[in-house]
From TrEMBL:
Keyword flag Nucleotidyltransferase: no
Region of interest called Disordered, as start-end residue ranges on this chain: 181-233, 749-869
Molecular function in Gene Ontology: DNA-binding transcription factor activity, RNA polymerase II-specific; RNA polymerase II cis-regulatory region sequence-specific DNA binding
InterPro entries in alphabetical order: Ig-like_fold (IPR013783), Ig_E-set (IPR014756), IPT_dom (IPR002909), NFAT (IPR008366), p53-like_TF_DNA-bd_sf (IPR008967), RHD_dimer (IPR032397), RHD_DNA_bind_dom (IPR011539), RHD_DNA_bind_dom_sf (IPR037059)
Gene Ontology CC, one term: cytoplasm
Subcellular location: Cytoplasm; Nucleus
Pfam family, one: RHD_dimer
Originating organism: Seriola lalandi dorsalis
Keyword Transcription listed: yes
Top-rank taxon, per record: Eukaryota
Protein name: Nuclear factor of activated T cells 1
Organism ancestry: Eukaryota, Metazoa, Chordata, Craniata, Vertebrata
Compositionally biased spans, kind Low complexity: 815-828, 837-859
Amino acid sequence: ITGLKYISFFFFPDAYSYTPNVSLSLPLGMGNPCLANQYHTLQTSPVISVSSCHQTGYSLQNDNHAASGYYLPHGLRPNGAPALESPRIEITAYSQYPEDEVEESSSEDHIIKRGVNSIVTLTLPNADGYRDPSCLSPASSISSRSCNSEASSYESGFYNYDNSPQNSPWQSPCVSPRGSSSLLSCPHAGGPAGSPHHSPSTSPQIGAMAEEGWPAQPRGSRPNSPSCGGVGKRKYSFNGAPYRQTSCSPIQSPIPSPHGSPRVSVTDENWLANTNQYTNSAIVAAINALTTDGVIDMGEGIPIKTRKTMLDHSPSMSLKVEPGGEELGPDGELCHDDYPSRLALKKENYCGGFLDVPQHPYSWSKPKPYLSNVSCYSSPSLPALDWQLPSCSGPYNLQIEVQPKSHHRAHYETEGSRGAVKALSGGHPVVQLYGYMESEPLTLQLFIGTADDRLLRPHAFYQVHRITGKTVSTASHEVMQSNTKILEIPLLPENNMRAIIDCAGILKLRNSDIELRKGETDIGRKNTRVRLVFRVHINQPNGRTVSLQTASNPIECSQRSAQELPLVEKQSVESYPATGGKMMLLSGLNFLPDSKVVFVEKAQDGHHLWETEAKVDKDSVKSSTLVVEIPPYRNQRISSPVHVNFYVCNGKRKRSQCQRFTYLPPNVPVIKTEPSDEYDSLVTAGLSMHSKPYYSQPRLTPIMPVADPDACLVGAYPPCPPRHAAIPSSSPSSSPTLHDLSPVAYSKCLPSSPTHAAPPGSVVPPIQETPGRPNLAHPASPDHNSCLGMLHSQGSPSHLNSPGPHGYHPIYANSSPSSSPVSHPSTPGGTAESPFVQAYSPSQVQAAASSAQAGGSPPSLLPEDASPPSMAITVKQEPQELDQMYLDDGKLPETRCAHIACKFPLGNYLTKERHFVFLDESFSI
DNA sequence: AGCCTGGAATCAAAC
DNA sequence: GTGTTTGATTCCAGG
């Protein structure tokens, strides 16, 4: 979207979802604090205008009322606007850009035209896999930049939207509405982090792409890495159609130019500096959010990393049988014989679904013949892999019962398998779908996702690897979707819809191969953390499909990193009075006698406000534990909680990700014994606003003072408690962001994934923030793994998730004990994972919350909740009316926030949704 | 024989 | 511009 001055999105909700038409205009780039902060600034300051009639994200929501609101951006709640038939996006090119670079025009025509062009020129076959079979180089990754430049999926999406209404339901609504309150814009704008979205300005234009993009380059004959494509330009091909890179090398220059914004790996050091570069991504993200549907466009567009999933939608999706065939199998592969019959059916369904999708006139990938005969899947398409889906919806709740270990050495293609990902306990990760009472088996999909601060998306440098053998008890088979390999595992009713993931290994692709892909902007260096992403698609009687997704805690896949970097999995104290002095026990890995613990506080702009080295009890240092004395805060007279970070440092570049710590006003009692107490205390602390919100960012038009992010923290109980008796031991990590975060929807589904706190660019140390904090209450909890989640790459703090398209920004809040409301002793299963929290981070809000886990489910305060979970938490529960009352009264003074926080049960209040609602309401005043 | 691993040598990019 | 360090990849070897 290079050079966009205005981007107008018109969403037309599908018939099922009713959404009001909202419009909002927001300047992108520095001008928009939200965007700038969260997404890194754009060089230019384009304005995105979105008129949306929102809608919807992924289908599921359509079925239930609550759902309808699910994808709506906060603030954009349905106001009665009539639903439109189809989405329409309008993009206005920014005049300031050179014409040649401005692909988009203000009018739809242009867009369409462009789309057409890309389509025309980009005739791509389906992506075979992550790399060209004949050439190891990654088969295209679509990267963010591509969105702009090469007929990115985004663009395609726009285009398609206009043309394919039917797809709309899938799209994410998060677009910011034009004209509407600016407040909303932030969140929306922020979005997607999905991958690639960086530069709106990316350079390579579509036109260029058309011309150069798909040259018939001979495939590389071999998988040797980088060389395959020749100098500088590596080709990647989909189905054997390699194309060269356009003038802009995929690896963009780090310079934040509007023209291409490469994803630069971000390290602690450089994160801030690069912040601006990513702003574009915000735009892209926004677009991305809008283009969820993608069925068609994906197929048509150029393989963009962001749109890898595009193939998903495309009829061309191919199921791969295994072993290995990197190539898309011929038709026959679609349904394997060896796959369980039930599964086979499922497969067919999928196929059917694809078939059901009207072919886009321009689609470049044509349905394979064999597909034509299959029909079963009612859903028109499945959500792209980079879409953010909830972990629960209605009665369904997809949870990771047993989290994978925080380290798993991935294997290269040149090596043999390094086995399946294991659980901390020595077993294997376990995933279970709760609330599904049908007798028909389902298919659980697994792919390797990112663990950085941006939105969850398929990881370009890692692929799931199917493990077979006598030690593997779980059936599985591979399917290629776009460039992402997906492992499909049966979820059988007889197994209580529970699957033991002992068949999934992780394959590392050479960085050089991937980075040379056209459009790939991510860099592989130090981008070694991944998450296992699980999805399940449940067909509903009405023909709709509910898609759920949950992601594991981060997994460090680098041999070296795993051996050398200190990892803080748990901390015994989450918050303490500013006086400090208390000893805090850190548990984790790779601690050394000379390890240092550094507390740091950064301002919103990233500069250091305070940094001090804490005293480490060297005598007690062990490889897995470290005792440190909490240093006194620089200001002993703080009136509200102050969030800082600390990290363990084993050397210059060997530092752990940042852990959160909260200094409380001296007079604030520290409660930690009971969950409820902790909760209150935490909440209180969190709610109080501080002058310097950790993660918060200014809003465009703040009506109220920026609340402390913490104030907005949302607690996190699993939104959807397991219907089954079993309580997940692990924290659910669901994708951080949902397509649509309507309060309602959220209330129902709390994201469980660890998230991080701040948006990149935000005050929070760019460094890594620990996603999931260890919950002391649950020592065994795997949560800590989340710490690994941070990636340095991409300029964003590691594991921080970038704000969702809607501006939601998940935050890792886990477990800090103190803060922790998180810790829930009551949680059964010692592995409670993590509480994590998602907060709305539209820019200003910080979030910090911890989540709860739990075992129980929080009481559902929202009326919408069709199925209120039973509350097993020991948090004091207030009348639900209270919740509503506050939300409705439109007043949201900080004090009130604090009050509410104290009153409400963690599970309910400390949820992303809640938080969101608050903001929404308050800002609406 | 092949799969898993753990280690470590070798390369190459960053510093 | 060069030496050092760090991270990525490839090899080896043993279970």
